[in-house]
């Protein structure tokens, strides 16, 4: 990190960067400057409404923090610090974090239960410390220009820095078209990096080091303790209840997202008694019967007596806000699913609220996704590759995809790679997903193919797995792949933080409390996936808390209409511009004629099949991303700024 000055001074430059992400913090703004450092903060006030202004310094002014997120156990930490003689000027978790660092240094991270991205400037050591929460709920990006390190909660702020240009990283794009998200630290922007979840970065004396302070760990397959499910269920209920209790802490009302599935329903059931004036719940509903879960949402809301509101998303409404969703996601996406969540957070903010609990994370840590059941069936079929009976099990996996039930056993076995994928393959559980997503790469341009050469995104992913990965149970391997990569890379970012904070709404995730995650990692596989029943222990826990209909309903992942959302005239206008042969040729990423045929096909009828839908949405969002960031930046829309803020 070094000193950089430009005409107009640091304050002006810091304010320019903060303005780029003002949506993350509409309640206040502040800056700090000193020799060699500049910090800016835009505030979403949730705890310590009147005395939480940031950046915040210690009593001597030589340690300064700017902090995005929440430390949920700040009350307990504060009491411990007071007992040791610390005195506090504010009622904020920010000051608790600041004084905890002053007391124990970077070991403070081991004491935190929270969702956070923060920067601490330690003037005594002339050291900058950046840290991100364990599961990657809050984002943190950084880049270097000259001898200066720049960082921010969103890349938009970094694009204000002189010399930082918006340029697509083609390898990141290939990762998106393989596994839905770039592999951190890579981002869609060449030269701009993302701090990994559970990592701390230290800049001192011209050197920058990055290391993990926490990671998911599973027992070796030989060391798994099956335990008594009743005992484990009791322990989980205590942990999860306490996780919800901590996340209900706020000086503003806390609501909840309610999808109608088991996870959000269970969180709502635990939170409702803790809301003295009744719990506000919010849902997305769809015109499309295939995607709509409103009847289940109403059932839970009525059962728990919540104050329930919903936002209905017709295809035209998804299309109208899709460009905004891409702009806030700051990366291409393969599904339209972020757009309805963008509208949902708008509803929450419009109702005067800015904190919601959500059920995200349960599928990853308690094995709820169909991909886990699918991998189990594939291994079962692989042991008798010529069986005509075993492939029938695939029909049980995806009840929301009726076309699958009509396929022959031979087709099902071939489609899911039963008997062809090696069971010792580190990516065995995810190969079918990667194959179906990768199929959309047939639309790549020759230039992009030449640039990528022999690069294999899946093998890149495999090379980043921990050394003890091979010693884990196959289910635990699959869980790690989901929780370590897709969860922070897509679910918590493109569908989570970025869509919620676009409207200044903070999502809180009780299932991602690190104590809950560590407990789930220690559970035996059968406690999570019993036969083909996913989230077995959660279903047991939910009895008596949520309606039986919710407990026993088949898993239905959150999805939204994809290409069919873009059929009306208003959407076709901007879609036509983005997907015209001239526009496609201009970016040089896709084959203009192939995309033109796909677009024409989509205009006559909704596209069928995952490949065409993923290709359509992926290409459209890439073109929108390029237009909003690369073209606009080249045309001077993003003015030059320099600073080093972590904001929002």
From TrEMBL:
Binding annotation for ATP: 284
Gene3D superfamilies: Glutamine Phosphoribosylpyrophosphate, subunit 1, domain 1 (3.60.20.10), HUPs (3.40.50.620)
GO CC terms in record: cytosol
Residues in Glutamine amidotransferase type-2 domain copies: 1-206
Recorded family membership: Belongs to the asparagine synthetase family.
Protein name: asparagine synthase (glutamine-hydrolyzing)
Binding site for L-glutamine: 93
Pathway: Amino-acid biosynthesis; L-asparagine biosynthesis; L-asparagine from L-aspartate (L-Gln route): step 1/1
Site (Important for beta-aspartyl-AMP intermediate formation): 360
One example GO MF annotation: ATP binding
Entry's Gene Ontology BP terms: asparagine biosynthetic process
Catalyzed reactions: L-aspartate + L-glutamine + ATP + H2O = L-asparagine + L-glutamate + AMP + diphosphate + H(+)
Keyword list, A-Z: ATP-binding, Glutamine amidotransferase, Ligase, Nucleotide-binding
Keyword hit for Phosphoprotein: no
The protein's enzyme class: ligase
Organism: Pseudorhizobium flavum
EC number: 6.3.5.4
Database matches in PANTHER family: ASPARAGINE SYNTHETASE, ASPARAGINE SYNTHETASE (GLUTAMINE-HYDROLYZING)
InterPro entries, alphabetized: Asn_synth_AEB, Asn_synthase, ASN_synthetase/amidase, AsnB_N, GATase_2_dom, Ntn_hydrolases_N, Rossmann-like_a/b/a_fold
